[in-house]
Design a protein that fits this description.
Layout lengths: L7 H4 L4 H10 L1 H21 L7 H22 L11 H8 L8
Helix pairs in contact: 2-3, 3-4
């Protein structure tokens, strides 16, 4: 157990510029970062016994942090579509089965 909280800039040092750009241009990404940092602080306080809690609660918070981190990583690597690209009409087309032979 470390006595310092896990920071995203340490996990993705090569993505520092992209992280800053997304944080200032993408509200969803900014909210995810804020939620991750808040959750990360809570977990750190639990791990250092500043705010003790049950192991079940601690493990659930850690699972949530991993899910957030995965989503942030997807956005950093460009795997996540922007809001304009993933609109309802485009999503329907992306989810529709592709037909062979072209249309």
């Amino acid at each position: 157990m470390s006595h310092t909280p896990n920071q995203l800039d340490e996990d993705f040092p090569e993505m520092a510029e992209r992280m800053h750009a997304l944080k200032t241009s993408n509200n969803r990404f900014a909210r995810l970062l804020e939620e991750y940092n808040e959750l990360n602080r809570d977990i750190h306080r639990i791990e250092t016994r500043v705010e003790p809690t049950s192991e079940d609660v601690e493990e659930e918070l850690k699972r949530r942090r991993v899910r957030l981190k995965d989503e942030i990583a997807q956005m950093l690597t460009g795997a996540e579509k922007t809001a304009g690209e993933a609109g309802p009409n485009n999503r329907e087309r992306m989810d529709a089965p592709r037909m062979r032979g072209g249309m």
